[in-house]
Each structure stands twice: as C-alpha cells, then as structure tokens.
Amino acid sequence: MKKYFSDAALLIIFLLVMSFHFLPRELHEVFGLLMFLAVALHLFFNRTWFKNLRHGKWSARRIFSTLINFSMLITFLTIFVAGICMSNYIFNDFVPLEIRRNITIHQLHVSLPYWLMIFIGLHIGLHWRELWYRFAKNLSLPKFLKPVIILLIIGLGIYGAFLNQVGDRLLMKHIFSTPATETNWAVFLILFLATLGIYSIISYWLNKKFS
Questions:
Q1: What are the tens digits of pLDDT across the range 23-38?
Q2: Full 3-state SS string of the chain
Q3: CA 136 to CA 117: how far, in whole Å?
Q4: pTM
Q5: Tens of pLDDT along 49-85?
C-alpha cells in the first residue's frame, strides 16, 4: 500500500511542479527537489523491475513498456539537471551566471516537462487495470458513464493541449505563458490532467492490443 500512496504523491508533486505559474518561484524549486526524492522512492519500490530486465521473453508489450519507462526516467533526469542549472534560489550560489542564463538549458527545462507528461500518461495507462482495482474497485459506475467519461477526458485534453500550446512546447519553441496559464489554478489542473489522460487512454488501448 505504501507503494501506491507514494505513486499518488509523485503525481501530485508533478502537478504542483507544473503549476509554477500559480506559486512562488521558491516553491517551484522545493517541489522539484521533492519530486526527485519521490522518483527515487518510486524506483526503490520497483527495484525488482530492473533486476528482471535480464530475464524472461521480450514481448511487444514489454518492449513498449520498457521504452516508456526509460524515456520517462531520462527525460526527468534531464529536466532535474537543467533545473539545477537554472536555479535562482536553492543552488544559486553553486551555479555560474552564464550557465543559469543559457537559453538551451532554459528551453530544455521548459519544454521537456511536456514530454514527461506524455510518458507519465502512457505509463499510467499501462498500469490502469491495477490502479483501478486498487483505488476504485468499490465504485460501481453505470456502463453508459464510461464512454462519456472517456469522451469528456479526450475533449478537455485536446482543448487543454491547445490552450497550453503543447505542440509548440514539444518542438522546444520559446514559450513562457499560454492561454492555459492565464486561467485560474483549478481550470489549469483540470485541463492538464485531461491532456495527460489522453495518453493514458492511448496506452491502455495499445496495451490491450499487445496482450
């Protein structure tokens, strides 16, 4: 159970990190450090996954899952290092000014979190059955509600991606604020979660095809 609560905490911290427009800048760096610790804890709880990489057959599902996991980890570490290089508070005295002002480092730190969002969504989709059983097994939703919820997530997610200019961010265009960040915090989080949810749905569907 500790593993699942730590995973939920990791997602919450990620949402707080992505909400830096609505928070004091000092907190953004604090949440970044907390996310690093949460990722380390997540890797610790799942350390047997790394040990098992050398064993078993490599099905299409396993290859897909492994590519997502390693892409997610490499992307996060790149964001974290770039964040340290850009630090204006916690690591300010340890990073030279020319590094903190480097435009490439800045673009990596601003753009890669949206790649991370995609990988996190895909990762959640791979484990959706397990997560649903663990957290929502006592919910009895009418069958007609499921497609409605899926369509709502897709609709809000597409709208959120448009407001957040996700396509431009993925192409590493220099963007700081977007129409999404000009809304209130609750709307921003709902739209961001819906966009993440689109990739969870895609991954869940692909996982079923691979099974």
A1: 998 999 999 999 999 9
A2: CHHHHHHHHHHHHHHHHHCHHHCCHHHHHHHHHHHHHHHHHHHHHCHHHHHHHHCCCCCHHHHHHHHHHHHHHHHHHHHHHHHHHHCCCCCCCCCCHHHHCCHHHHHHHHHHHHHHHHHHHHHHHHCHHHHHHHHHCCCCCCCCHHHHHHHHHHHHHHHHHHHCCHHHHHCCCCCCCCCHHHCCHHHHHHHHHHHHHHHHHHHHHHHHHHC
A3: 23
A4: 0.90
A5: 998 998 888 988 889 899 999 999 999 999 999 999 9
